[in-house]
Amino acid sequence: MLQSVRARTTLVASLVVAIALAFASAALLVLLRDRLVAVEFSATALRSRDVAALAADGEVPDNLSFPGDDDGFTQVVSSDGRVVAATGNVAGESPQSEMRPQVGERSNEIRSELPVGDGERFAISARAVQTDDGRVTVLTGASLHAADETLRSVANFLLIGTPVLIALVALVTRQVVNRALSPVDGIQRQVTEISQMDLHKRVPEPGTGDEIDRLAQSMNQMLDRLERSSERQSRFVADAAHELRSPLASARTTLEVSAAHPSGEAMLLAAINDALLDHDRLEALLDDLLMLARLDDPSATQTMRSIDLRDVVATFIESRTDDRLGVEMSQGPVLVTGSSSQLSRVLTNVVDNALSHCRSAVELSLLSANGNAVIIVDDNGPGVPVEDRDRIFERFVRLDQARTAERGTGLGLAIVRDTVLAHHGEVELGESPLGGARVTLRLPLESRPLLTRTKT
Fold first, then answer.
1. Candidates 3.40.47.10, 3.40.50.620, 3.30.70.890, 3.30.565.10; correct CATH number of 305-444?
2. Model-level pTM?
3. Residue 128: which H helix or E strand, with range?
4. What is the C-alpha separation between 63 and 188, in angstroms, rounded?
5. Residue range 216-241, pLDDT digits in tens
6. What is the DSSP letter of 137?
7. To which H or E segment does residue 74 belong?
8. Which of 53, 196, 72 is nearest to 123 (CA)?
9. Helical (H) or strand (E) element with 274
């Protein structure tokens, strides 16, 4: 039962209120008791002062009489312990207290089991005064019966009212929590109903602006991301299946035709070569798919170290003999943190793409600017329309006309984008001064804080 947030919240609220009420009730009873007793001591002090004044003037009668004698008493006690005057309810009784203060001083005490009353407690004040016959002590007492009854009534009220108040607090807390958590119930029901086929559904947002409303908004944002991710995954799986089927079907057709119509060794070798080409295409596609899978996996570890991009570019250029490619590099070190193999793959994909679509020239530049290492690849090809400059980095996207002259896997620029993002950088496609496309890659230099990685 306590696994419920409602039950735990109600229990905690009730316990807190119960503890607070217990301390408050105890403090109230103590304060009320002290106040009532203080009132009675004030009354006895006034009476003892009046009787002491009479005793100092020698005017104390043997039988004292005061209003309310039934609730109190007065005795005048000589220095040798004799009662020289008393009210009628303690006539003939011995002194009701042993207190004997000094002249001019007053003492107080509470006693019970006195001859007067029915065993209730009495507040007694003693005051000493000097008379012509010597020092006498005036003892005055007031019953605390009314004060005790008041305390008892208040205590009984608290004993009955406190549990009722705690129960009321528990009930109200439960209702408030139920109302506060009712949107959570709606969110839970909706999330339970959402499956892989229902990612378009969204949880209800209460619109209250509180934590639950923000939770619902976060849930819907998460569902948006999941829906987009699921759509991308579905398209990716469908495109991958189509791309994998094409070289397999081509190889199968070639081999089946050769098997059905054997025409000598030359034809057989041609069929094998065609099948090997399809195999190469298939192998390249699988390599690209594996590369993207590693980039998509946040748990995949990759060796990141300090590298000089000039070395990466130099190594890349050494493997190229194409006269159309020109290179311009920064004179000083261009240090970044990353994987040299992945960044080399990025260079290969971007430059190969540019060489595939240029008319006569591709320019590769490496420089440092604004805390970034910047790699720029320009070509003088047909360029990329503005409306396609973002889409070209999506997976299995091939543009029409000139930029699809070479058959590729459709994953090269997608790998470029994901690799650059994995290195906390950014990639941009624009118009080149050469008249074609310009691909700009920016990677943070080692001395600069890394950019936050975002993928769409």
1. 3.30.565.10
2. 0.51
3. strand 122-131
4. 86
5. 888 888 888 888 777 777 777 776 67
6. E
7. strand 72-78
8. 72
9. helix 265-296
